[in-house]
Design a protein that fits this description.
The protein is an alpha/beta fold and 349 residues long. The protein is 44% helix and 13% strand.
Length: 349
């Protein structure tokens, strides 16, 4: 598919805008939270564990991870994005954690920027996720484009991100979501790698998760509300007062991450589940795991660190791992599986 040059330029400029706005502007949700503040771990002052014996490793989609962490999908398509992705990939490789890249639509439209996503050379052993917007399946994208982005990344799975609110507010957004579930189902049958369904910060309800699972997706990334508000981000990019107003009105729209985890897990106890959306430290990660998620994704903290240096990214990974380990130690659990079945996390409100 050959897209007009002006469309690819618009997509590339949007990528640059997103990085700048996320780093420089206040685009966090303020009225809605991730919901994890409603829970508290029961402290064990006698854990009967050797801290050195705690194991926070796990397996996701058949691949071993040293910690239940995903560097969530962020960026690509620009020179700055290439630097960010390289730093993130090198740290993901060192700590054996998962990584996703931002939407690769720009790489389909403008193949010369594909290398900004191609991080497999920096992360040969890492669980890597390619990424496209699900709505593009209604805009002439199909199996060939999905295979192309997987090939660029040499990815282990494909994320289809689902972002109706963002598209409503985004200048020239793609808003035809009719019939997508059937196209997702067809794609899941044909793709040689697992397909992951992901929101972008407004959450996936249990009802929609059930439809996606029936359609054949291999995993769900809830990407709930409480973190970066893409309505706010797009409001900063608005080309007219209407778009700006919409972004502000819907700045705190969505389902809290904790609610997404618990409601989806109640109806789908076995589906591989990623918790993301407003997670900011290892305590959030541990709480999300205790609620039923398999791994947890963070974007903004990693973006901020990667914009600084690779060392800053490594330091963040070290801190997250230490925080998760501390939760297990101070609740008397030696593994993530034990944490999930221990009842250590209690709802307090």
């Amino acid at each position: 598919m050959n897209a007009p040059t002006n469309i690819s330029a618009q997509t590339q400029n949007r990528k640059a805008d997103h990085i700048r706005i996320c780093l420089e502007e206040d685009v966090q949700s303020h009225q809605i939270t991730n919901g994890l503040e409603r829970y508290r771990f029961t402290h064990s002052c006698l854990p009967e564990l050797n801290h050195n014996d705690i194991d926070i490793s796990t397996t996701f989609l058949g691949k071993h991870l040293s910690a239940p962490l995903l560097i969530s999908s962020m960026t690509g398509g620009t020179e700055q994005a290439a630097m960010i992705n390289q730093r993130l990939a090198q740290v993901a490789q060192h700590y054996k954690i998962a990584m996703g890249v931002g939407s690769q639509r720009v790489a389909v439209e403008k193949p010369q920027v594909a290398d900004t996503f191609a991080v497999r050379k920096y992360a040969p052993d890492v669980l890597l996720f390619a990424n496209l917007g699900a709505v593009q399946l209604n805009y002439k994208y199909g199996l060939d484009e999905c295979l192309r982005v997987v090939d660029i990344l040499e990815a282990d799975a494909l994320i289809l991100h689902i972002n109706p609110l963002q598209e409503c507010i985004q200048p020239k957004g793609d808003t035809n979501f009719r019939g997508l579930i059937d196209k997702i189902s067809e794609l899941c049958i044909k793709m040689p790698v697992p397909v992951i369904a992901k929101e972008v910060g407004n959450g996936i309800s249990a009802a929609i998760a059930n439809k996606l699972i029936d359609a054949g997706v291999a995993a769900i990334d809830v990407a709930g509300a409480g973190g970066t508000s893409w309505a706010k981000v797009e409001s900063e990019r608005a080309e007219n007062p209407l778009q700006r107003r919409l972004g502000k009105t819907f700045a705190d729209w969505g389902l809290p991450t904790a609610e997404c985890i618990t409601t989806i897990r109640a109806i789908a106890p076995d589906v591989p589940l990623i918790a993301s959306g407003g997670l900011r430290h290892g305590l959030d990660v541990a709480a999300a795991i205790a609620l039923g998620a398999d791994i947890a994704g963070l974007a903004m903290p990693f973006l901020q660190a990667a914009a600084t240096s690779e060392t800053a990214v490594a330091e963040l990974a070290e801190v997250l791992i230490a925080e998760i380990t501390t939760v297990l130690f101070c609740t008397g659990n030696a593994t993530l599986c034990q944490l999930q079945h221990s009842g250590s996390l209690q709802r307090i409100q």
